[in-house]
């Protein structure tokens, strides 16, 4: 069974930090790019950050550049999102994503975790 399980969400004060973790199982972890997305009620899910399979390249939304860091530990099948200098507008449900394009059949596989809630409030 392919599964992504997020953890680390919770309540934090503005200016504080959290580290989210996403543990993958049932897939060849290094073969997948990984990403973090977030969503609030009434808005579309948006990309926060992603990272290539070997960790060679990362990408961030402009709103989190300089504050968030995505990383992965392929020995642990885990991707992380370190969130610093948190703002109220960072409050959202955060979702882990795994993705892989197949050159063989032209398909794009995308897997989602169940989400973890981050609330930034004083």
Descriptive report:
The protein is mainly β and 122 residues long. The chain is 0% helix and 52% strand. It has no helices and eleven strands. Strands 2, 4, 5, 6, 9, 10 and 11 form a seven-stranded mixed beta sheet that branches. The mean pLDDT is 96.
Quick gist of this model?
The protein has 122 residues and is mainly β.
Strand content: over 45%
Helical element count? 0
> Would you report the number of β strands?
11
Q: Indicate the overall shape.
A: globular
Which stretches of 5+ consecutive residues score pLDDT under 50? none
Mean pLDDT level: 96
The main sheet comes to: 7 strands, mixed
Rg over CA atoms: 14 Å
Q: Give the end-to-end Cα distance, rounded to a whole number of Å.
A: 40 Å
Can you give the helix content as a percent range? under 10%
Summarize the helix and strand pattern as letters: EEEEEEEEEEE
Structural class, from secondary structure content? mainly beta
Give the secondary structure arrangement, pairings included:
Elements: E1 3-7, E2 10-12, E3 18-25, E4 33-39, E5 46-51, E6 58-60, E7 68-73, E8 78-83, E9 92-101, E10 108-112, E11 116-120
Parallel strand pairs: 2-11
Antiparallel strand pairs: 1-3, 3-8, 4-5, 4-9, 5-6, 7-8, 9-10, 9-11
